Amino acid sequence: MKKNKTVYITGHRHPDTDSIVSAIAYAQFKERKGVHAIPCRLGDINAETQYLLDRFHIEKPMLFEDARATLDEIEIDDPLTISPTTTIKEALELMTSENKQSFGVVNTQGKLMGMVTRSDVATIGLGDTALSIKLLKETPTEYIAKTINGSVIYDDPKRHFNGKVSIIAIAETRLRNYELKDRMVIVGNDQDAQITAIAKGAGMLVVVWTEEIADEVLEMAKQFHCPIVRSGHGTMNTTRYLFFAPPVKLIMKTDLVSFNINEFVDEVGKKMLKSRYRSYPVVDDDNKLCGYVSRYHILNQHNKQVILVDHNEYSQSVKSIEKADLLEVIDHHRVSDIATNRPIFFRNEIIGSTAAIITSMYMENQMSIPKETAGLLLGAIISDTLKFKSPTTTEKDMGMAKVLADIAELDIDVFAKEIFKVSSNISNKSMDELLNQDIKRFEIDGKAVAIAQIIAYQVSEAREIETELKAAMHDFVNAKALDLLVLAFTSILENGSIFYASGELEKTVVEAFPDKEGETHSFQEDILSRKNQIVPLLSRAIINSIG
């Protein structure tokens, strides 16, 4: 089963608007370049982002939880199947024609019931006769007729067949000496022999070289509850094929080693080491057969292909990113610790938002931007640059924003007010939502630091929930094993931020952002950017405190 290669485009954990929108817009860009790309997210989206998605009728990106390849993403064998009523002979013929060693047995809903292999079939032909007798005893008359290319002349619900077979091709005087009770008797075009076999209690009559059954024989068969089958073969081939008449449900293995289609390839490989099967069935969550996987598929699988936008850090990336093939990075942050084993496309600009970079890539490739996508990109630029007030803002950000506003037919000032009205509403948010809606984790001089930023209409909103906030931050630090948690409440209206901290390094926040005399959590005018202001100042304070 050939799989089309998929590229997953994802931003960072605890995604903000720039991260989500950049993934969406760049996935659209790659699709128009002929690449099957899926935008992803690494967590819940905030109210601001959801507002923009709803406003422009864009679906929320899929949740991307692990960069390891799943069985659904690699090439596996097609799900060739047989039904439980397929005869052993039919199964063997299919194995030969399809050059397969095994088949999954599925019901009418496509759900896996068991497996039948060549070795299972070989057991019938070469194994213990007792097993073959037992299976033939349980085989419906119609299956027997089908297998020997014959027809059912008469069947009886009170059949008393024990599975044993006798071949009668001798004189009548010898016939009387045979024990035929409950046996299948293979007999030729000899009416007297047919009658004698039925009279001696035969459990089934299989006639060869016979065109018609005499009325007398048929009436006697009814009287003695003895089914009659006319074979389409001679005596030898009839005998050869008979024991392959049972349905596969009687021999299939039901104690299976199977894998779910969503299991990770590396985990499947480990499980295969504990068994020696040639191939394994792969099923979905409803136990429907999806295909077969072998060690060949595991050894020849390719990793997931991933593109990172709006970050280039392992700590901010999807789980198991090191096991993926990283193709590209589109970012506007410092170059961090992402490493690759081969050259990749890496675009990092000194700019206020990744969305502005994506916009410029559309323009560089002379590719039109859909109106809805333009609205999304504009919203991301406004959000990440705090409507161009952030010190990270460049002329390029503002230029791209103007282009997008024209395409989307939006007034930047009016649109910005709409966005910040949504993002700054903290009154109806839980402590958990406030701490997680826009948080990034850093390692600064060996210390685990997390910085969350909340856009507030006025910083006084934070002071109203200060007691509850500090308690929640203390619990968060312990739960996440942080050395420092910083929460910045940033007001675009007031053009500045206030800071709260928790953890053993919380004093460094006061050193980085000093309080005014007689105050705590003083307002820090013109401090808006986490990337260009908060992180550098805080890093310096932490390094100095440790040193």
Structure description:
The chain has 21 helices and 22 strands. The model has no long low-confidence stretch (mean pLDDT 92). Helices cover 37% and strands 19% of the residues. The chain has a six-stranded parallel sheet. A five-stranded mixed sheet has the order 7-11-10-9-8, with helices on both faces. Among the domains are: 7-68 and 304-422, inorganic pyrophosphatase (n-terminal core); 431-546, Roll (Diaminopimelate Epimerase, Chain A, domain 1), CATH 3.10.310.20. Helix 2 (47-55) crosses helix 16, helix 13 (354-364) packs across helix 15 and helix 14 (371-384) packs across helix 16.
Structure in a nutshell:
With 547 residues, the protein is of the alpha/beta class.
Task: Name some characteristics of this structure.
547 residues, alpha/beta, inorganic pyrophosphatase (n-terminal core), Diaminopimelate Epimerase, Chain A, domain 1, five-stranded mixed beta sheet, 22 strands, elongated
Kindly report how far apart the N and C termini lie. Answer: 59 Å
Number of extended strands: 22
Q: Please state the CA-atom Rg, rounded to the nearest Å.
A: 37 Å
What gross morphology would you assign?
Answer: elongated
Question: Are there runs of 5+ residues with pLDDT below 50, and where?
Answer: none
- The percent range for helix content is 25-40%
Strand content: 15-25%
User: What is the correct CATH architecture of the domain at 7-68 and 304-422?
Assistant: Alpha-Beta Complex
Secondary-structure-derived class: alpha/beta
Major sheet summary line: 6 strands, parallel
Helix tally?
21
Mean pLDDT across all amino acids: 92
CATH class bucket of the domain at 7-68 and 304-422: Alpha Beta
